[in-house]
Amino acid sequence: MNFQNHFKKILIYVIYKLPIYLIPVLGFGQDMDNENDLKQIIGYPLNGIELRLDGIVDEEFWTTIPGNGNFLMQEPKEGAKPTEQTEIRIAFDSQNIYIAVVCYDSSPSDIKTFQKKRDASLETDDRFRWIFDTFMDKRSAYFFEINPLGLRGDGLISSGQGQTLNKDWDGIWNAWTYIGDFGWSAEIKIPFRSINFDPKSDVWGINFQRTIRRKNEEQLWTGHRRNQGLLRPQNAGILTGLVGHSQGLGLEFIPYGITQSSKIYDEEKAEYSSASSMDLGFDLNYNITSQLKASITYNTDFAQTEVDNRQINLTRFPLRFPEKRDFFLEGSSIWEFAPSSNVDPYFSRRIGLVNGIPIPIKYGGRLIGNIGKSNIALLHVRTGREGELNPENFSVARYRRNFWKESSIGLIYTYRSTEDDILLGNPIQDRKTWGTDLNLSTSEFLGDNTLQFSAFFVAHSAALPSNDSTSISDRSVRGFRFNFPNQPWSAWVSYREFGDEYDPAIGFNQRNGFKRLQPAINYAPLFEKSQFIREIEWGVYYEYLTSLENKLLTENLRFNLGTIRFESGDNLGVEVSRGFEFLNEDFDILGDSTVIVAPGKYVNWGYELQASSASFRKVSGSIGYEAGGFWTGNIRRLVMGLTIRPALGINLSSGYTHAQVSAENSGFSTNLFQVDLGLDFTPDISLSSNIQFDDISDILGTNTRFRWIITPGTDIFFVYNHNWLNNPTLNRRLFTTQQGAAMKAVYTYRF
Question: What does the record list as coiled-coil region(s) (predicted)?
Answer without folding.
Answer: none
